[in-house]
Amino acid sequence: MKLCMIGVRGHYGYVLDGLPRLPVVQVAGVSAGADGDDVTPLAAGCKAAGRAAPVFDDYREMLDSVRPDVVVVAGPFERTAEMCIEAFRRGAHVFSEKPVAMTLDELDELAAAYARSGKHLAAMMGLRYEPHVYTAWRAVLGGAIGEVRLIDARKSYKLGRREAFYHSRRTYPGTIPWVGSHAIDWIRWFAGGEFETVFARHSTRHNRSHGELESAALCQFTLTGEVLASVSIDYFRPDAAGTHGDDRVRAVGTEGVIEVSGGKVLLADGDGERELAAECDRQIFQDFVGAIEGGGECLISAADTLAVTEACLLARQSADEGRIVTFAQRSRGGA
Amino acid sequence: MKLCMIGVRGHYGYVLDGLPRLPVVQVAGVSAGADGDDVTPLAAGCKAAGRAAPVFDDYREMLDSVRPDVVVVAGPFERTAEMCIEAFRRGAHVFSEKPVAMTLDELDELAAAYARSGKHLAAMMGLRYEPHVYTAWRAVLGGAIGEVRLIDARKSYKLGRREAFYHSRRTYPGTIPWVGSHAIDWIRWFAGGEFETVFARHSTRHNRSHGELESAALCQFTLTGEVLASVSIDYFRPDAAGTHGDDRVRAVGTEGVIEVSGGKVLLADGDGERELAAECDRQIFQDFVGAIEGGGECLISAADTLAVTEACLLARQSADEGRIVTFAQRSRGGA
Fold first, then answer.
1. A-chain residues near B253 (CB < 8 A)
2. Summary mean pLDDT of chain A
3. B272–chain A nearest CA distance, Å
């Protein structure tokens, strides 16, 4: 299985982490994806994983020359959709950084290219594989809290000093689609329904000279069956805090409440309150390759990828325009 | 200082708890406040506190006969505003169950009666005195997290089997004003600004035959200076859980994050993460009497009481009507 990797701005580490489990995968080419980006760390990572690969200046030339089976996209945000579409047009499966599009028009184009391709698509929603989140989801899926009625999710990140491409909407999709996408994905995943409406707010104040980057945001969704969901996002986590992120997700159901919080999975139900042991022995890129080979299943489907991207972009639109956005107003493209 | 107490449907326990600290207060009369409500527990509570008091069938007769200095209102929700207004008209200070009004018209009438009276008004926002909440607020007030940018609050209650008056909007203000009022109060208190807009949702689904009682709700506020705030409310806390309520409040600031969660006050700032010792030696009704006597200060002012009631009612309106509500659209009455 021939793999090409484009770009060094995202979570290509998911792929490098998966390679030791995937002797079938040959890295046949890597490319920086943007003029000026340094491809060295990516090339070195492949070599360290025992898959040294030729470096290409132009990613399209690489795709045409190598004819890969799978393309990993982690290039500039503003070229993600274009790169995915180019890969689909050449008959490759696509494993991409999220969000997979910066605009709804791009998303529609990508959805159409995906639908025509007959190939697999998954976004790097790696936090579904985080053991605490995965354990909580499995419990909800198994009926531990009955029917889901309410979900609260949180993403709190350290801001640090971020590269220039984070400072502009031209090269950064906004904090809701970038940081919030994980939380928005958890909501739909845990609820098992579709988004119906969103209202969101965001603010760039006190972003420490990061241009247009929003330092805080809130989203409020409704999903099928009057399920309510909230997302809280901020870049104010102090540098001195123990971890980069403070991620939380809480699902309230008719028979119980489950919460991933502070490194624990806590369940309250008819038997009282207790902690669940967190575990996940799956790996996101291994799952993706397994799905391609037909023997396995990736936790993130193409429908998930497109629906969550749409939700991120509509939430951003709601916050930009100060109005409630209804999902049904938009046709769903190929999702 | 002569005190009259009306009603047995609210947190009159705050008054009983304060009496041992207040030898100056004489309970001069109690009344059930609603036909059919049993005044016995209230009368017994006063007696147990060494302040046995005569029982009156009609609260107005009691006010006219006793001419109290202070009136405590904890009667039916739908008569709260009326009772407060009757007390103000007779020149008494008022300590009332929240929300102090069921409608915006009632709130305006109450605000006008309060303004004319020159007396004190405070709602039973007793959770400001909860040691963890109070400690977190003091830290925020002292600058521990810099400028507040984002607040997330949660109220999760056991539903149990609730009396009939909880089942109808005629006799129950709704879950946002009843359960959510504490969280909405914390937000304004921690942020130190005024509400500007609200968008809210609620659902009655799976309320276990509790009529119109909403089982879940979400509110999203903006406050002065683009401060964002969310409230999550539900009645799905399992009966087997250790405590009746699972209350949380988290304030994110430019210099740190503070969170009241799981019986702890957790601060993350430039020095890392640590727990603060929770303490509060103040008592809400003692504070209220202290404010009347001129030597002390009640944490809850009349302005707080009226502003938070307005916020609760506008949030309910937003959820009922499915639209964003702007506070400036309404004149503030006497608030």
1. 236
2. 96
3. 5
